[in-house]
Amino acid sequence: ATAVAGDGGGHAMAVVAGELLVRDGTVGEGPEGTPPGGAGSGSTADDKGRSGSTPDDKGRSGSTPDDKGRSGSTPDEKEESGSTIRSGESVQGWDSDAWVTPTLPVDERPVALGYGPGISVVVTEAGTLCVDAGDGWRHQVVGVRDVGGVALATVE
Question: Is the pTM higher than 0.85?
Answer without folding.
Answer: no
